[in-house]
Amino acid sequence: MNKETLQNYLEAAPFFLFVGIARLLPRLWALKLGRQLGRASRFFQPKRVATARDNLRKAYPDKDSAWIESMIRKVFEHLGISSMEMLRLNHFTTRRDVDDHFTFDGLEHLQALKKQQQGAFLLTGHVGFWEAGTFFMPILGYPVDFVAKKIRNPFVDRFIQNQREGAGGRCLDSKKGARRIIRALTDQRMVCLLLDQHVSKKQGIVVNFFNRPAYATPIIPQIALKNQTPIVPVFVYRQEDYNYRVVIHPPLVFDGPATKQAVQDCTQKLTDIVEEAIRQQPDQWFWVHRRWRKSAERQTS
C-alpha cells in the first residue's frame, strides 16, 4: 500500500464511521441529529461562518444583524440535515417512498416531454434536498443523468457515486461533460445541471447574481440554443415535517443562433430563475460557498 492510498484510507475512515451511524438510526432521528450537529458545527468553522455572513449581508442589505445571525444558524442546520439525507439516500428505494415523502407541483411538464420522447436539461441549484432527484426521477420512469464533480478521495467518491446511481440514474463527470451531455440528450435522456456554483474565469461568463457579479457556466445555453433543447427548472424544498415539495417549472426553449450575446442573455435568465428559487427558501441554500469573486467584480468595473 503506497502512501497516497494509506492517506485516503485514513481520511475516509471517520466518514464511513459517520455513514454507519447515519444508516443505523431511524430516518427522523437521523435527520434531527443532523440538524443539531449542523447547528453545533458552525462554532468550529469560523471561516465558513464569516463567508456566510458576508454573503447574506450583501445579498440582503435590508436585513438586520439579528436576521442574518438567525439565518446563519438555519443554514448550518440545513447543511447538517443535508449531510444525513445524502448518506441515507439509498434508504429511498420504491415508488411508495416517493408517495410517502414527496409532493409535486408541475409534474405534467416532465410527463409531456417524456411523451414527446425528447431529451431535456433539468436546471437546479444547491437548494433544499437537491440530491433527491437522483432517486425520484428514475423511480418515476424518467431516464436521467447528473453532472457532478468527482471527490478527491476515491473511496468517498465511489460511495457518493453509488448513492447517486442507486435508483438507476447515471453520473457524468463534469470535467468530461459537454460531449457526454450531448450524447445523453440525443438518447432522449434528461440531464441535470446545477448553475449556482463558482466556475473559473476561463470556463465561465459574468452574470448578475443577487445584485453582484459572479461567474456562471454557459454550457446549458450553448447547447440549448444550438439544438433548441428544452430547459426545465426543478427545485426540491424540504418542509418542516422533513418531507419534500418538488417544484417543476414549465420548459424553456431558447430560439436563435448561439451568439455571444444570446448565450449571455440566456445564462442570465437561468441565473435569475435559480436566484428566485433560493429567495423562496434562503435558509436552504449553500451560503458558505465563495460564490462571488473579486475577479468577476473587476471584469464588470
Q: Can you walk me through this structure?
A:
- There is one protein chain.
- With 301 residues, the protein is α/β, with parallel strands linked by helices.
- It has one domain.
- Helix content is 52%, strand content 15%.
- The protein has helices spanning 3-24, 27-41, 46-59, 65-87, 95-101, 107-115, 133-139, 154-165, 177-186, 219-227, 260-280, 294-300; strands spanning 102-105, 120-124, 144-148, 170-173, 190-194, 205-209, 212-216, 231-238, 244-248.
- The strands form two sheets. The protein has a seven-stranded mixed sheet, sandwiched between helices. A two-stranded antiparallel ribbon has the order 6-7.
- A hairpin with a 2-residue loop joins strand 6 and strand 7.
- Helix 2 (27-41) packs across helix 4 (65-87) and helix 10 crosses helix 11 (260-280).
- The longest helix is centred in the first third of the chain and has 23 residues, at 65-87.
- The protein is globular.
- The model has no long low-confidence stretch (mean pLDDT 93).
Strand content: 15-25%
Helix content: 40-55%
Unreliable stretches, pLDDT < 50, 5 or more residues? none
Radius of gyration: 19 Å
Total helical elements:
12
Q: What's the rounded overall pLDDT mean? A: 93
How far apart lie the N and C ends?
52 Å
Short key terms for the protein model shown above:
Lipid A biosynthesis acyltransferase, cell inner membrane, seven-stranded mixed beta sheet, acyltransferase activity, single chain, 15% strand, alpha/beta, 52% helix
